[in-house]
Specification:
Order of helices and strands of chain B: HHHHHHHHHHHH
Largest interface: A-B, 93 and 94 residues
Chains: A mainly alpha, B mainly alpha, C alpha+beta
Oligomer: heterotrimer
Shape of chain C: elongated
Number of strands of chain B: 0
Strand content of chain B: under 5%
Order of helices and strands of chain C: EEEHEEEHHHEHEHEEHHEEEEEEEEHEE
CATH class of the largest domain in chain C: Alpha Beta
Radius of gyration of chain C: 25 Å
CATH topology of the largest domain in chain C: Rossmann fold
CATH architecture of the largest domain in chain C: 3-Layer(aba) Sandwich
Radius of gyration of chain B: 22 Å
Low-confidence stretches of chain C: 359-369
Distance between the termini of chain C: 31 Å
Structural class of chain C: alpha+beta
Strand order of the largest sheet of chain C: 6-7-8-3-9-10
Distance between the termini of chain B: 35 Å
Mean pLDDT of chain B: 84
Strand content of chain C: 25-35%
C-alpha cells in the first residue's frame, strides 16, 4: 500500500452515486414546489407565498419551536446537574446512566406514547391536555440519550474535581460553582445537546400524532395530504431548519472541540 | 443524593409508562388477567405485521449497512480529499435526522406517480419504473428508509474505520499481503464487531420507525407501529390492551437486539484502541 | 559494493523538501542508524526504502537490484513500526506467522518457526496472548519476531522504542542488537535518541533538514563532530564562538579572552571558528589567587544538576557559560556561588569553521514528516 496521491476510482464512484441518491429527492422537492396548481408544470412561487402567508403554518411552527425551547430548558435543568453530580460524586453510576440512555432504543416513541397516554389519563387537564405539559414531559425523555451523550463527553473533557475544589476553596456555593464555573466550561456540549433536541422536537411526529396536538410535523402531514405542491415548499422549509440546527451544531462543536454523537432522531 | 430528581423523572416518565404497556398487554377488556391479547400476536393479521416490520428492518439494515460502509470507507480512505469526509459527516448528521413527514413527501415528489424522476424516466427514457406498483408499498418504504439508514451507518461506522490503524495496513503489506489478503485477515475481522453492532442499531431504528411509513402510505403498509397507531388515531375497535400487546411484542424484539448489541460494542472497543 | 543503497533520494511534500539528495550505503550485516530531530527526513527515508512511498528522484538498490518501483509487499524487507502495528484480532503466534501464511508455508513449518522466533525474543510463554494482553515492550518484541519470520534481506525499524518506558528501552535495544548480530541481517534503524544510536549501531548518519550532516562510527560522531549541528545534537557540548588570532601558536580569541588550542594550529588567521569542548574535558577546581596560564579562567558556579554518575555544573565566567561534568563528591565541595578556576585543555577541544549560514543551534523544530 503506497501513500495515495489521488482519490481511488472506486471511492469516487461510490461517493458520486451516494451524492446523487441523497440530492435527488431534495432537487425533486424543489422542482415540485415550483409547479403551478393549474397546469401541474413549472414555474411559480405560488407555493412559497402560500406557505409564508399561511397562518396555520406559522402557528404550528411557533408551537413546535416553543415546545423545543421548553424541552431544552427542562432537559438542561434536569440533566446537567445530574451528569455533573455523577461525574463528581458517584462515578460508579455513570455506566448505569449510559445504559439507561439506551433504553429509548428499546422503548421507542410508539411504545412509549401508548404507556404515557394510559398512565396519565387521570391527571389534571392543565397537564394532560396541554402540549407544554404532557408533550414536553415526553420530549424531555426522548432528549435524554442525546443530552446525556453530549454532556457526558463534555464533562469528560474537563477536570470536574479540580474545578469544583478550586471553586469551593475560594468560597463559592454549589449553585455558584455550577453556574459560574462548570456551566461555561461545558457550554459547547450543552449547546450540542440542545441543537440535537431542537431537531428532534421539530421533527417529532409519533407522540404528537397519537396524542393529537397540532405541532409543526402534524401540520406538514396535513398539507401533504391536501396540497401537493405547497407541501413541497413546506418540506424544504422544514429541511432547511434541520440543516440550520445541524450546521450550528457543527459550528459550536468546532469552536470548542466538543464531540457530540449525532444519531438519528425523527423517523 | 443529587441524582434523585433525575431518577424520579425517568421512573415517572419512562419506566412506569413502559411498565404499564408490558403489564397492560396481559389485561383483559374487563378486569382480570389474560393472555388472549398476547396470543393473538402470533396469528394473522398481526403475525403478518411483525413479518412485514422485521422484513423491512432486515432489508434496510443490511442494504443501508453495506452502502453506508462503502460510502464511509470511500470518504475516509487515503487519497480522498479531507473536505469530502467533512461534507459526508455533516450531511449524514442532517439526513439521519431528516425523517418522518418531510422525507416521505420528498420521495413522493421524486418517485411518486407524478414525481419528477418518475415523469422524467417515462418521458425521456421511456421507462415505466413502477410497472403497476408504486411508492406506497413495502418496497417503497424500504427505498425511503434507506435515506436515513445509510447516513446513520456512516455516522456510526466512521469511528471504527478511523480506528483501522494505518500501521496494520502497512505491516500487512510489508509482510507480503495484497489488498484482498489484508481485508480478509485483518481489516474485516477487526471491523466486524462494529459492523454487527451498527447493523443491530439500524435494525432497531427501522423497526421502531413510525412517522415515515405512516405519512408515505397513509397507513396502508401494516407495519407494527402503524397498527398500534391505528388504535389511537383511527376508528378501529378500541381494545387498548391489544395495542399494548403489540407494543410488548416490539419491546421484546428490540430488547433482544439490545442484548446482542452491548457485548458487541464492548468487543469492538477492546480491539480498536 | 553496498548491500543496501539509497542513491540521491529526493522527496517533497507540498512545498516542503523532506529529502534533499540522500546517499547511504550499507554493507551486508551492517547496522546503521538514521539519527535526527523530528522533521529531518529520517522516517521519510525509511518509508521510501520500505516502499510505502515513492521518491521524486533517486533509487533504492538491494543486493544489486533496483527496487524503487517494486510494490512494498514484494521487497522482502521486514519492518518494525513505532507502535500499534500488531493485528489486534490475532494472537502473538498468529501475528508472527502471518507473513509465512501469505507465502503458503504449511502449518507445521509455520508453527515451528513461530515458536523458534518467539523464543528468540524471549516470549515463548506468551504465544497465545492477544496484543491487548501484552505490555508495550512485549508487543514490540512480537513485532520484531513477526518481521524476522519472513527471513527478510533487510530489517527496517522506525523508532521502535520511542513509545516505551526508559528502562524497557535500554533493555530492548540491547536485545535488538544481539539478535541482529546473531542473524547477521542488514539493518536500518531510525531514532531521535542519540544515546540509543551510539549504543547499538555500526554506523550513524545524522540528518537535519533533509540532508545527511555527517556519517560515521559512533565514536567518530562523538569525538569529531563535523558540523555545529552534529556537535550540539550528540551529547552535550560547550560551544564558544572565537576567532583565530595566531595560527602558528594556536591562539584564538573569545570575547576578551585568549586560549591556546592545538586544533587552531595551521588555520587561517582571522578565521571565525566554533570551539567545541566536552563537559568532561573541563578541569574545575577551587579558585587559586594569582597566576594561572592562558587557558585558565575564573568563574562562579551557578547551578548543580545531579545526574547519578556525574554532577553537571554550570558556571559563568565573564559572560560565558560553561558546562562541566565532575564526580559528585568533588561537586559537593564546590557549592553554588563558589569561585572556581576552569582549565581548558590544549589538546582536547575541536574547532569547526563557521560559515555564515551554518546552523549553530539544534533543537526540536521543524514539522513532523
Amino acid at each position: 500500500m503506497t501513500t495515495r496521491r489521488f482519490i481511488a476510482p472506486s471511492a469516487a464512484v461510490w461517493l458520486l452515486l451516494g451524492a446523487a441518491y441523497f440530492i435527488l429527492p431534495l432537487v425533486a422537492t424543489f422542482l415540485f414546489s415550483l409547479r403551478q396548481l393549474q397546469t401541474g408544470h413549472c414555474c411559480t412561487v405560488a407555493s412559497y407565498t402560500w406557505v409564508i402567508h399561511n397562518g396555520q403554518f406559522w402557528s404550528s411552527l411557533r408551537l413546535s419551536v416553543e415546545l423545543a425551547l421548553e424541552t431544552i430548558a427542562v432537559s438542561l435543568l434536569l440533566y446537567v446537574p445530574t451528569v455533573y453530580w455523577v461525574h463528581l460524586k458517584v462515578p460508579k453510576l455513570r455506566p448505569v446512566l449510559a445504559f439507561m440512555a439506551l433504553i429509548p432504543f428499546v422503548v421507542p416513541p410508539i411504545v412509549l406514547v401508548v404507556g404515557l397516554l394510559n398512565f396519565y389519563k387521570g391527571t389534571p387537564i392543565w397537564f394532560y391536555a396541554q402540549p407544554w405539559g404532557f408533550l414536553v414531559a415526553a420530549y424531555v425523555v426522548l432528549a435524554f440519550p442525546y443530552m446525556f451523550f453530549s454532556l457526558d463527553s463534555g464533562f469528560r473533557a474537563i477536570d470536574v474535581h479540580t474545578l469544583t475544589e478550586a471553586s469551593q476553596s475560594l468560597g463559592a456555593s454549589w449553585g455558584r460553582t455550577l453556574f459560574q464555573v462548570i456551566l461555561p466550561n461545558i457550554r459547547a456540549a450543552a449547546l450540542a445537546g440542545s441543537f440535537l433536541t431542537l431537531a428532534i422536537v421539530l421533527g417529532e411526529f409519533t407522540i404528537a400524532n397519537l396524542s393529537q396536538f397540532h405541532t409543526f410535523p402534524i401540520y406538514l402531514q396535513y398539507v401533504n395530504e391536501t396540497q401537493a405542491y405547497a407541501a413541497g415548499a413546506a418540506t424544504l422549509v422544514s429541511f432547511g431548519i434541520t440543516w440550520a440546527a445541524m450546521l450550528s451544531l457543527l459550528f459550536v462543536g468546532r469552536k470548542r472541540g466538543a464531540r457530540a454523537s449525532v444519531v438519528a432522531g425523527a423517523r | 443524593m443529587g441524582t434523585v430528581p433525575f431518577f424520579a423523572y425517568i421512573i415517572l416518565m419512562l419506566f412506569i409508562p413502559a411498565g404499564e404497556v408490558l403489564v397492560g398487554a396481559f389485561k383483559g377488556a374487563t378486569h382480570g388477567w389474560t393472555t388472549s391479547n398476547v396470543s393473538q400476536l402470533v396469528h394473522q393479521p398481526y403475525l403478518h405485521s411483525y413479518r412485514e416490520s422485521i422484513e423491512i428492518s432486515l432489508v434496510t439494515a443490511l442494504l443501508g449497512g453495506a452502502i453506508g460502509l462503502a460510502l464511509a470507507y470511500a470518504a475516509i480512505r487515503d487519497g480522498t480529499p479531507r473536505w469530502i469526509r467533512s461534507m459526508l459527516t455533516t450531511f449524514s448528521g442532517v439526513a439521519a435526522n431528516f425523517g418522518g413527514i418531510p422525507l416521505a413527501f420528498a420521495f413522493v415528489a421524486t418517485l411518486g406517480t407524478i414525481g419528477i424522476a418518475t415523469q422524467f424516466m417515462q418521458r425521456q427514457l421511456h421507462l415505466n419504473v413502477w410497472q403497476g406498483a408504486d411508492l406506497f408499498t413495502k418496497t417503497g418504504v424500504e427505498i425511503v428508509y434507506l435515506y436515513f439508514q445509510i447516513p446513520l451507518m456512516v455516522l456510526v461506522i466512521a469511528p471504527a474505520i478511523d480506528g483501522l490503524r494505518r500501521e496494520w495496513r502497512e505491516a500487512a503489506s510489508n509482510l507480503g499481503a495484497n489488498s484482498w489478503q489484508f481485508w480478509r485477515y485483518v481489516g474485516l475481522p477487526v471491523l466486524m464487531p462494529s459492523v454487527l453492532g451498527a447493523l443491530i442499531l439500524l435494525f432497531g431504528n427501522s423497526f421502531a420507525a413510525y412517522a415515515t411509513a405512516y405519512s408515505l402510505t397513509n397507513g396502508n403498509v401494516y407495519i407494527v407501529p402503524v397498527v398500534i397507531g391505528a388504535y389511537y388515531t383511527g376508528n378501529v375497535s378500541s381494545n387498548p390492551h391489544l395495542a399494548q400487546a403489540l407494543a410488548l411484542g416490539m419491546f421484546v424484539v428490540l430488547a433482544v437486539m439490545m442484548a446482542l448489541y452491548i457485548p458487541l460494542q464492548r468487543r469492538a472497543a477492546r480491539w480498536v484502541r | 559494493m553496498a548491500f543496501l543503497e539509497l542513491n540521491d533520494l529526493h522527496r517533497s511534500f507540498g512545498g516542503v523538501k523532506a529529502l534533499n539528495g540522500i546517499h547511504i550505503g550499507l554493507g551486508e550485516g551492517e547496522f546503521l542508524s538514521l539519527l535526527g530531530p523530528s522533521g529531518c527526513g529520517k522516517t521519510t527515508a525509511l518509508r521510501l526504502v520500505a516502499g510505502f512511498d515513492r521518491p521524486d528522484a533517486g533509487a533504492i538498490v538491494v543486493d544489486g537490484r533496483d527496487v524503487t518501483r517494486v510494490a512494498p509487499n514484494r521487497r522482502g524487507m521486514g519492518m518494525v513500526f513505532q507502535a500499534y502495528s500488531l493485528f489486534p484480532n490475532m494472537t502473538a503466534a498468529s501475528n508472527v506467522e502471518f507473513g509465512l501464511r501469505i507465502r503458503g508455508r504449511n502449518r507445521s513449518d509455520r508453527r515451528k518457526r513461530v515458536l523458534e522466533l518467539l523464543e528468540l525474543v524471549g516470549l515463548g510463554h506468551a504465544v497465545d496472548r492477544y496484543p491487548h494482553q501484552l505490555s508495550g515492550g512485549m508487543q514490540q518484541r512480537v513485532a520484531l519476531a513477526r518481521a524476522l519470520a519472513i527471513e527478510p534481506r533487510v530489517l527496517l525499524l522506525d523508532e521502535p522504542l520511542s513509545a516505551l518506558d526508559a528502562k524497557v528501552r535500554v533493555q530492548l535495544r540491547e536485545e535488538i542488537r544481539r539478535i541482529q548480530l546473531e542473524l547477521g541481517i542488514t539493518t536500518l534503524y531510525v531514532t531521535h535518541d542519540q544515546e540509543e544510536a551510539l549504543a547499538i549501531s555500526d554506523h550513524v548518519a545524522v540528518m537535519y533538514g533533509g540532508v545527511i550532516e555527517q556519517m560515521g562510527t559512533p565514536s567518530e560522531m562523538y569525538t569529531a563532530p563535523a558540523t555545529p549541528f552534529v556537535a550540539e545534537f550528540i551529547g552535550t557540548m560547550n560551544r564558544l564562538e572565537a576567532k583565530v588570532v595566531d595560527a602558528s601558536t594556536g591562539e584564538v580569541e573569545h570575547g576578551s579572552r585568549r586560549f591556546r588550542l592545538d586544533a587552531a594550529r595551521g588555520r587561517r588567521n582571522g578565521e571565525r571558528v566554533l570551539i567545541l569542548i566536552r563537559p568532561e574535558a573541563l578541569e574545575v577546581s577551587a579558585a587559586v589567587n594569582g597566576g594561572g596560564d592562558l587557558n585558565t579562567v575564573r568563574g562562579e558556579i551557578i547551578t548543580h544538576t545531579f545526574l547519578g554518575p556525574v554532577t553537571r555544573v554550570k558556571l559563568a565566567s565573564d559572560g560565558t557559560m560553561f558546562t562541566a561534568d565532575m564526580p559528585p563528591a568533588r561537586a559537593a565541595a564546590l557549592p553554588v556561588g563558589s569561585n572556581v578556576s576552569v582549565q581548558v585543555p590544549v589538546e582536547g577541544p575541536k574547532l569547526l569553521s563557521l560559515a555564515d549560514d551554518a546552523p549553530v543551534s539544534a533543537g526540536l523544530d521543524g514539522e513532523d514528516r
